[in-house]
Design brief:
There is one protein chain. The chain has 384 residues and is mainly beta. It has a 5-stranded mixed β-sheet with strand order 2-8-7-4-5, with no helix packed on it. Strands 18-25-24-21-22 form a 5-stranded mixed β-sheet, with no helix packed on it.
């Protein structure tokens, strides 16, 4: 009996080394999108918040199922619609279930297991209700004449609906001027059948046009309705309201474009010893450009005014030279003569004679414009 007691004493007095128990991680799902999202909505984002007591790396596993009623798993599609393993789970909201019926809700499951095999329990689940997708509308503007008052401005609306298709969308257009609360609807330009089709085959395009009679901010309001929309334009379930502002301006100043010969720096001279053609290749203007399109009933052409001045003599208008070019013959002058050859332009809305000092070699009626918009160019020619 004595020996048994000694053995027991040794055992009882010793130390046991037992590995600590690996604790399970805990998970939480944060929905950074709306509580109810629209069918077809892009970029729905969920974030996993992970807490592991031993600070181990937790491998995540996301699964998202499309359901009729996500609270009843039996109404969900059996296979996951989307899966992921990152802390952030991003997906596009489905439109329909596998059988083609509308998707009404989503069931998202998040599981995780740490490096030592401890699994988070229970799995985290999140139910996301799906709502009706409102129509989408994107508006663009096209102004062939620079949005100049009195000229037509075209507006195009590209529209669609993720869960009802473009064919079930109706559009209402309302036009408002800066001075009148409403001026009705813009004129038709093309409909969904005749307008160019967008690259996205699920969408169509409608074109409208109007000709503003006053300058300022015009406003186009488009109300798009799907079958769940109502006549109330202010945000019911199936309505989308888009407001597009169009800034209408006065006729802008014409600007001299490329000239030949290239104009020398101010106060510098241009030596000329051979007959030379001085010409303007381009005038930049929304409705009076050069060269112009004579077949366009709205377009005109800015006017050219050429003049010449020898030394201290008076400036003489070249009355017969109103086109875009003048031929200069140095043989008509003495060697060393300094001759100023000048071209000035005006369009239908700008003044002539120009209001700049006649002594100035160039004229910019609006000095705030950048880059410079010149209405006068003077070559100081030295006859050689």
């Amino acid at each position: 009996m004595k020996s048994l007691f000694l053995i027991s004493s040794v055992v009882l007095g010793g130390c046991f080394f037992v590995d600590p128990i690996n604790q399970r991680p805990s998970l939480e799902i944060e929905n950074t999108s709306a509580e109810v999202i629209e069918r077809g909505e892009a970029g729905v984002t969920l974030i996993a918040h992970v807490d592991d007591p031993e600070k181990q790396i937790v491998k995540l596993d996301w699964k998202m199922f499309v359901c009729n009623d996500a609270s009843n798993v039996g109404t969900c599609d059996g296979l996951a619609k989307a899966e992921g393993s990152d802390a952030t789970f991003v997906f596009d909201a489905p439109i329909a279930r596998r059988d083609g019926t509308p998707a009404e809700s989503l069931l998202v499951e998040l599981s995780g297991i740490d490096d030592f095999g401890a699994e988070a329990r229970p799995k985290q689940q999140l139910i996301i209700p799906l709502g009706n997708a409102k129509p989408s509308v994107v508006v663009s503007q096209s102004a062939k004449y620079g949005k100049t008052v009195g000229t037509p401005i075209d507006l195009f609306a590209v529209f669609g609906d993720a869960d009802d298709s473009f064919s079930n969308v109706t559009l209402e257009f309302e036009l408002f001027s800066p001075t009148v609360s409403t001026v009705g609807a813009p004129d038709d330009l093309c409909d969904a059948a005749t307008c160019p089709k967008p690259a996205d085959e699920t969408k169509r395009q409608i074109g409208k046009t109007f000709t503003p009679d006053v300058i300022g901010e015009w406003m186009l309001r488009i109300t798009a309705r799907d079958p769940r929309g109502s006549a109330d334009p202010l945000g019911t379930d199936g309505n989308t309201v888009v407001v597009e502002t169009v800034l209408v301006v006065v006729d802008q100043l014409p600007c001299l474009g490329v000239v030949s010969p290239a104009a020398p720096p101010v106060q510098s001279s241009l030596p000329v010893s051979e007959p030379t053609l001085f010409q303007v290749f381009q005038i930049v203007d929304a409705i009076d450009p050069y060269p112009t399109n004579v077949g366009d009933p709205i377009l005109g052409q800015s006017e050219f005014h050429w003049s010449i001045k020898l030394a201290n003599n008076a400036r003489q208008t070249l009355a017969t030279e109103t086109g875009n070019s003048v031929a200069f013959d140095p043989g008509a002058f003495a060697l060393g003569d300094v001759v100023e050859l000048r071209v000035e332009i005006n369009d239908r809305g700008s003044p002539f004679p120009l209001t700049c000092d006649p002594a100035d070699l160039t004229c910019q009626l609006d000095p705030t414009l950048t880059p410079a918009c010149l209405q006068r160019q003077t070559w100081k020619v030295v006859v050689q």
